[in-house]
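User: Hey, quick favor. My workstation is busy. Could you predict this chain's structure for me?
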Amino acid sequence: MGRKFKEVLHVFRSSGTPDYTIVDIGTISFEHDGILYIEIQVGGGEAAGTFELFDGDTELVTDESPDEALTGAWNIPPGGTGHIMYGFKRGRRFKLTAAGGRSTKSGCINAFIAHIYVVDEV
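Assistant: No problem, here it is.
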């Protein structure tokens, strides 16, 4: 699987506009290119979760949904698990965003845990 790089436990909520929980991920310490693998488990609350990976320099604003997502896992239901895989070049930074899924009514909240792994490509 690679080595566990980071583990994050956080919450997200749904609203009428993008309301992101943002997790910063840096791969600067890795000597080679690699694959970022993220396993996301959504809690048992009401909200489904949408998770997107962005370049670290992407500016995320709350009045519109950005189109620059590198990849993502969308509408993971409560109690469900999603996966994100993305090949990276050494020295990159990323932002993982979490928000309520489109099918979730506004105001619902939930928790998630993200297990972030890096697989070195040599």
